[in-house]
């Protein structure tokens, strides 16, 4: 179980505390995370996972993983597998409590039959269009279906016929018999079973009727002994139906599940809808569900976000009853805080400019000690030799006064090494700068006579003969949001054309040479990077996780 799952006290805990004080739920607290396997999980689901598993941990209870697989047309085992991997990676475990709503199809059918027997459900022959017309509107009550008063016997027979495949898709439905004049449209005789001659990824062709979410969900909760069914706000209007079903079927009020809603997580510059994310994948706008630009858990993992950082983020945003938009800079802040502690420092030059140190002995290499973690110690050797590379943008020929990097006649310190002075700029026939010729101060390295000499700028660098080549992928937001951070209706048109920049020939110090996918580094002065799974021993590939500038920390100091 993940360590940092204790959430700050919130209204959900208050509700649970009150239930416990009132003597309810003597069986212990039991929550569930109920994804529909119709896509990969995203950062919004991470919030729900942390909340549900976190509450269970906090109350010494249990949390189930339940696949809400009642809609066979959109579901797939690929999603079932990815969801399990993602929940585990986030640091949570369901032990043996992995369930599927489809496990309960037989039981759910029996509950529907029981509702019919109790005169609380009927088979309706209205077409979808007619049903819409009968439903009424927010201001007008609905009208009762002409099939509403069928006898129990007739309903039982027709429902059995539905189950046995006697009718075509859409020909008939089973509806709860509640109240067509209820101000809450959800309560106007909602459909609870529909006919769909579709193969299910687990039950195959056994069923041609499938329960609706609103019917399957509360009953699955009750079957599993869930005490608190935590869901997002859009289900608030469905709560009366949730309670009506449990009441109508006679579940004990002291132990039966209770639905509590909280606000969905919305993030600036971020799509949090599986349907839209799927559009990006299927339309080829990204490389796949785990493209490092995707806000999916697998995308964030590949990008180099850590599980600890995501859990930390979910804890900090807390839970609220009102919908709001969280600045994505806060998520990045959590990622930086984690990596700042835990990512080894190395030097990498993304856009190399060759520097020849003319007074450094030819053929000589020395190994300089460099610290790898400012917070927890650890050192490595960095080779230095006569030819090195620095970042192109760290040199300017016509430099403004405040430019403290390298310029003609100017001096800088090479991190962990010597002070160099730029003596000459070499250009090609087109006038492009291709090389700098510098001299170094041999006494300026650590322990030397002039080690303490102050120069304004410090640059990162790599030695030419030992540097390792790497591909580096730089990312920007996938989505350009409006000034309020909202996702525009036509989100495809709002995609950022510059969300990916690939640098083919970056150069990195050789200490990273045998690194494998998932390893994190801070490239000094460049940001946090993570080794991509495309990496092979012959070809290193890095993703930029985040730059070093933390706009969220600044906002907070504000
Ligand atoms: P989507 O709209 O992306 O398909 P969903 O709610 O349909 O999301 P489900 O698989 O049904 O996806 O969700 C599983 C659980 O995750 C539900 O309890 C749902 O309320 C929760 N959840 C989904 N999106 C968010 C979000 N943005 N913030 C918090 N919880 C979420
Ligand atoms: Mg859903």
Please outline the helices and strands.
Elements: H1 11-21, E1 30-33, H2 43-58, E2 62-67, H3 77-90, E3 98-100, H4 105-117, E4 121-124, H5 128-135, H6 152-163, E5 173-176, E6 191-195, E7 209-211, H7 213-224, E8 228-232, H8 239-248, E9 258-262, E10 265-267, H9 274-282, H10 297-303, H11 307-317, E11 324-326, H12 328-342, E12 344-346, E13 348-349, E14 352-357, E15 365-371, E16 379-385, E17 387-391, E18 411-414, E19 419-427, E20 433-441, E21 457-459, E22 462-463, E23 468-475, E24 500-508, E25 520-523, E26 527-531, E27 540-546, H13 551-557
Parallel strand pairs: 1-2, 2-3, 8-9, 10-11, 12-25, 14-20, 18-21, 23-27
Antiparallel strand pairs: 4-5, 5-6, 6-7, 13-24, 14-17, 15-16, 17-22, 18-19, 19-20, 23-24, 25-26, 26-27
The structure holds adenosine-5'-triphosphate and magnesium ion.
Adenosine-5'-triphosphate binds next to helix 2, strand 8 and helix 9.
Q: Which properties best describe this structure?
A:
single chain, 558 residues, alpha/beta, Rossmann fold, Ribosomal Protein L25, Chain P, binds magnesium ion
Radius of gyration: 31 Å
The top level CATH class name of the largest domain: Alpha Beta
The overall strand count is: 27
Number of domains: 3
Q: Can you list the ligands bound to this structure?
A: adenosine-5'-triphosphate, magnesium ion
């Amino acid at each position: 179980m993940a360590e940092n799952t204790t959430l700050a006290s919130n209204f959900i805990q208050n509700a649970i505390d009150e239930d416990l004080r009132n003597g309810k739920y003597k069986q212990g607290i039991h929550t569930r995370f109920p994804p529909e396997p119709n896509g990969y999980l995203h950062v919004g689901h991470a919030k729900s996972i942390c909340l549900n598993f976190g509450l269970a941990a906090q109350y010494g209870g249990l949390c189930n993983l339940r696949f809400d697989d009642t809609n066979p047309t959109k579901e797939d085992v690929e999603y079932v597998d990815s969801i399990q991997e993602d929940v585990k990676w986030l640091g949570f475990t369901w032990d043996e409590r992995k369930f599927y709503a489809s496990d309960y199809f037989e039981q759910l059918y029996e509950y529907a039959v029981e509702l019919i027997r109790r005169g609380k459900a009927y088979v309706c022959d209205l077409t979808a269009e007619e049903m819409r017309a009968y439903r009424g509107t927010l201001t007008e009550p609905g009208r009762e279906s002409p099939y509403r008063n069928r006898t129990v016997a007739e309903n039982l027979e027709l429902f059995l016929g539905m189950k046995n495949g006697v009718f075509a898709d859409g020909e008939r439905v089973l509806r709860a018999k509640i109240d067509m004049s209820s101000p809450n449209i959800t309560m106007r005789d909602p459909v609870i079973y529909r006919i769909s001659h579709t193969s299910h990824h687990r039950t195959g062709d056994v069923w041609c009727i499938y329960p609706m979410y609103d019917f399957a969900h509360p009953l699955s909760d009750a079957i599993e002994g869930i005490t608190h069914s935590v869901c997002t706000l859009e289900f608030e209007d469905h709560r009366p139906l949730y309670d009506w079903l449990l009441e109508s079927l006679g579940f004990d009020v002291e132990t039966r599940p209770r639905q509590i809603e909280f606000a969905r997580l919305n993030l600036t510059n971020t799509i949090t809808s599986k349907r839209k994310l799927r559009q990006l994948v299927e339309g080829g706008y990204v490389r796949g569900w785990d493209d490092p630009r995707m806000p999916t858990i697998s995308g964030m993992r590949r990008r180099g976000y850590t599980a600890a950082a995501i859990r930390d983020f979910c804890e900090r945003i807390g839970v609220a009853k009102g919908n709001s938009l969280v600045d994505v800079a806060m998520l990045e802040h959590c990622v930086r805080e984690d990596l700042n502690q835990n990512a080894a420092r190395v030097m990498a030059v993304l856009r190399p400019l060759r520097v020849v140190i003319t007074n450094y002995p030819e053929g000589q290499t020395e190994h300089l000690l460099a610290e790898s973690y400012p917070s927890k110690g650890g050192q490595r050797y960095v080779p230095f030799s006569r030819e090195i590379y620095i970042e192109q943008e760290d040199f300017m020929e016509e430099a403004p006064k405040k430019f403290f990097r390298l310029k003609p006649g100017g001096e800088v310190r090479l991190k962990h090494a010597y002070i160099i002075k730029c003596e000459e700029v070499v250009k090609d026939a087109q006038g492009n700068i291709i090389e700098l010729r510098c001299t170094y101060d041999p006494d300026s390295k650590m322990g030397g006579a002039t080690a303490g000499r102050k120069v304004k700028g410090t640059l990162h660098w790599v030695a030419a003969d030992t540097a390792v080549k790497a591909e580096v992928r730089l990312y920007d937001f996938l989505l350009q949001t409006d000034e309020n951070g909202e996702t525009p209706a036509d989100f495809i048109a709002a995609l950022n054309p510059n969300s990916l920049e690939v640098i083919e020939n970056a150069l990195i110090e050789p200490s990273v040479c045998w690194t494998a996918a998932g390893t994190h580094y801070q490239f000094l002065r460049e940001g946090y990077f993570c080794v991509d799974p495309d990496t092979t021993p012959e070809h290193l590939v890095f993703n930029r996780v985040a730059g070093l500038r933390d706009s969220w920390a600044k906002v907070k100091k504000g």
